[in-house]
Amino acid sequence: MVNEIYDNMKEGMDKALESLKHNYQTLRTGKVQTSILDNITIDYYGTQTALSQVATILSPDATTINITPWEKHLVGDIEKAISSANIGVNPNNNGESVQLFFPPMTVEQREISAKGAKTMTDSAKVAIRNIRKSANDKIKKLEKDKELTKDESKAGQDEVQKITDGYVTKSDEILKAKEIEILKV
Fold first, then answer.
1. Which of 60, 90, 98, 182 is most buried, with most CB under 10 Å away?
2. Which of 51, 80, 101 is the last residue of a domain?
3. Does residue 175 share a domain with residue 110?
């Protein structure tokens, strides 16, 4: 019963860390990654659609991204969506595709990107703490329903805290690694 709570809790916290890693991909580091465009959508026949669903996105070198839509009439929409997304670069439209030329990151841009990583990590920690609260509430309910003794409940809550501390530490380690990657010139 309590072990099931622990397992569900670990599963939720693993998902929070995976989400954090996915969110990190939208941050710019030294080498430009196509994942910086993951959150950009365009209006595709009345539906907001991810850019990757309507175009081929390639990164031929460390500072360039080339976006070739599958339907040529989308070039203008893609250009507008990228402009409004404010990803730090102006799109270049050649009529058939959109190119993004990223200048090398300045120290200030790297620091801003590192702050973004910290904010994302803080959000993941909030998610982890919410999962902890939910697990503790379930244990307290079991105690209230007389399915656990007071001592078993206390031991269960202590274990929940221990698991939570482990995941918070993991998120801090992931952040340190990402900050090193971002700040490395």
1. 98
2. 101
3. yes
